[in-house]
Amino acid sequence: MELERLLRSQGFGSRVECRMLVVQGRVNVAGKVCADPFEHFEPAGLSFAVDGVLWNYREFAYLAMSKPAGYECSRRPQHYPSVYSLLPQPLATRGVQTVGRLDQDSTGLLLLSDDGQFIHTFTSPRKKVPKVYEVTTRHTVDDAQVMALLNGVELHDNAKPVEAVACIRLDERRLRLTVTEGRYHLVKRMIAAAGNRVEALHRIAVGGFCLPPELPIGQWIWLESPELELLAQRA
Q1: Are both 135 and 27 inside the same structural domain?
Q2: Distance of CA 166 to the CA centre of its chain
Q3: Domain co-membership, 74 together with 105
Q4: Which of 26, 54, 152, 168 could form a disulfide with 163 if both were Cys (CB 3.0 to 4.6 A apart)?
């Protein structure tokens, strides 16, 4: 693949902009400055640097972010900054999207990708991918509320009750709740239908992949094969 085309596929701008990066000596491949934008490279496994920042070629980008509160999962945020502002510009430029959404006041595991099939898999209700949340409630959680969530609660936009896959009471006002859908405000509406109210919502896992505890809030990591395999688990 021509170097300028390779850079464009990785989000470094238009063909003209990528060509200028190379001509200006700002691109390093295999430890050497490459000044020829038309030089061919095998993209698979290729490492390169732009302005001294090391990148690996990736056909698709798969990311996990520890989303902070006060950020919207939108490219056109209305009241708060966008989560995309937390990414390097090349990732935003290449079309990385959030896989589903977390409300601006919700925190925790947020997946991002530019692979359409991946996004569909983890957002489609038919795929039944479990998503695990730690929920802080306004009022004490009683046994009746836990049973209501497990047996199914009525939501106005759903023809049948919506059930939690699992619901564990962590303490008087905290639950660990697992659902397999990702509709608008789903967890908040389920908790409200059970007779309580969400004060804080933190997603800790999708599929079999848990938010790494060492990942700082507001930071992101690449997802490699082991993490992708965990995501595919339905347990």
Answers
A1: no
A2: 22
A3: yes
A4: 152
Q: Which residue has the tokens 């303490």?
A: 171
- 129-171 confidence digits (pLDDT tens): 999 999 999 999 999 999 999 999 998 877 789 999 999 999 9
CATH code of residue 171: 3.30.70.1560
3-state SS, residue 185: coil
Q: Are residues 199 and 159 both part of a single domain?
A: yes
- What lies within 8 Å, CB to CB, of 12 at 6+ separation is 18, 21, 50, 90, 93
Per the structure block, which two tokens stand in for 109?
A: 């595991």
Residues 221, 180, single domain; the answer is no
- The catalytic site residues sit at 103
As a whole number of angstroms, the distance between CA 28 and CA 51 comes to 8
User: Do 37 and 67 have their domain in common?
Assistant: no
Please give the residue range of the domain that contains residue 111. 62-125+208-232
Cα distances (angstroms) measured from residue 5 to each of 45, 93, 112: 16, 14, 23
Residue 59: CB atoms within 10 A of its CB come to 10
pTM of the model: 0.92
Are 43 and 69 in the same domain?
Answer: no
Report the C-alpha gap between 193 and 169 in whole angstroms. Answer: 17
Rounded CA gap, 235 and 61, in Å? 25
**Separation of alpha carbons 107 and 99, rounded Å:** 14
CATH of the domain at 47: 3.10.290.10
Task: Report helix, strand or coil for 90.
Answer: helix
- How many CB atoms within 10 Å of residue 17? 13
